[in-house]
Design brief:
2 domains, seven-stranded mixed sheet, Aspartate Aminotransferase, domain 1, globular, three-stranded antiparallel sheet, alpha/beta, 12 strands, Aspartate Aminotransferase, domain 2, 369 residues
Length: 369
């Protein structure tokens, strides 16, 4: 019994790809809590007030049954206004939201053109979609344009959907959104943008890198820079209505905790009220670029700085050595990244100080020598 699974785990171990869970330990160069909001006293106070007011911990059911709570609807109204869109819909996780978007909105006869490096959750949705899908070269608007043109030449008559991330979680680079929007307008296409790693970090109030519009659907995870949990799908009101009626990942999931919805509302307000956090983060990102790029880390002006070591074994040994020195840095291996692209994913957050970045510089010199 389970012999296949034992053998598969053994194969992973032989290739230095076996995963395990490790506790939080050491200075935070691993999390996505970019603005340090997860422990913000305003979030704790907002949840405490909600409990005192009788807001329940659990929702008790799906949103279409008894699980729809006023806290969900208050969050969705506030989020739509914050991101400048007609409507939003709250999901329990970014993975579920992304998968539901791609599985639900594109229809049979449509085409999804996705960036080659989009998150696994988008791929999960495309597997479930009735539409055709094709990968385009990373961050190459011409490749998206060519893919749609070729599809039309073959007789494609439906809607084209362009699926990208605004800030790529493993490489730390940003998408050419203006050029991709031009492609979408040229082909009367829809643009789906996963803003998971840009929300809170970029934009005048932390709204991310994309601009709301009638042909734009954005996803904003709440568990990264917002320090909470869940995800918001933001866009035209018809998108919200369609997902409520046809999105199986929404319809058949127990609704998120109403307490967490209150927390996300407070996080949105913190993003608006405390722009100095973004300023401080970008200062820290610049400092990290000065100190860590000389070791090979890719500094692209974002909080994600990959240091590609290529070999799985070397990557995990380096991560272990840095953890032993008091730095929580994790090794990333295939299939999360391409074969031969194993890396240390250095994440810059407000949970560390400038001094920690300087000492990490010395630690990398020691470990990678």
């Amino acid at each position: 019994m389970l012999d296949f699974h034992r053998a598969d785990l053994a194969r992973l171990a032989a290739r230095d790809r076996l995963r395990g869970l490790a506790p939080q330990r050491g200075r935070d160069f691993a999390s996505n809590d970019y603005l340090g909001l997860a422990n913000h006293p305003r979030l704790a106070a907002a949840i405490t007030r909600a409990v005192e007011e009788g807001v329940p911990v659990g929702s008790g059911g799906s949103r279409l049954l008894r699980g729809n709570h006023p806290e969900h609807e208050a969050l969705e109204a506030e989020a739509a206004a914050f991101f400048g869109a007609e409507a939003s819909l709250y999901f329990s996780s970014g993975y579920t939201a992304n998968a539901t978007l791609l599985a639900t909105l594109p229809q049979r006869g449509d085409l999804i053109v996705h960036d080659a490096l989009v998150h696994a959750s988008m791929h999960e949705g495309m597997k479930l979609s009735r539409s055709e899908s094709v990968a385009a070269a990373h961050n190459d608007p011409a490749a998206f344009d060519d893919a749609i043109r070729a599809w039309r030449v073959r007789g494609g008559k439906g809607t084209a959907w362009i699926a990208v991330e605004s800030l790529y979680s493993m490489d730390g680079d940003t998408a050419p959104l203006a050029e991709l929007m031009a492609v979408a307008e040229r082909h009367d296409a829809m643009l789906i943008v996963d803003e998971a790693h840009a929300t809170g970090v970029f934009g005048a109030r932390g709204q991310g890198l994309a601009t709301a519009g009638e042909r734009v659907v954005t996803l904003h995870t709440c568990g990264k820079a917002m320090g909470c949990e869940g995800a918001l799908v933001v866009g035209p009101a018809i998108v919200r209505d369609y997902l409520v009626n046809r999105g199986r990942g929404f319809i058949f999931s127990t609704a998120p905790s109403p307490l967490m919805a209150r927390g996300v509302r407070e996080a949105l307000r913190i993003l608006a009220d405390e722009p100095e956090r973004r300023t401080a983060l970008h200062g820290r990102i610049a400092l990290a670029g000065e100190h860590l790029a000389k070791h090979g880390a890719l500094a692209q002006g974002t909080p994600v700085m990959p240091l590609i070591l290529h070999d799985n074994g070397r990557t995990m040994r380096a991560a272990g050595a840095l953890q032993a020195l008091g730095y929580d840095i994790r090794g990333i291996r295939p299939p999360t990244v391409p074969v031969g692209a194993a890396r240390l994913r250095l994440s810059i957050t407000l949970n560390v100080e400038d001094a920690d970045i300087r000492t990490l510089d010395a630690a990398l010199h020691e470990v990678l020598a």
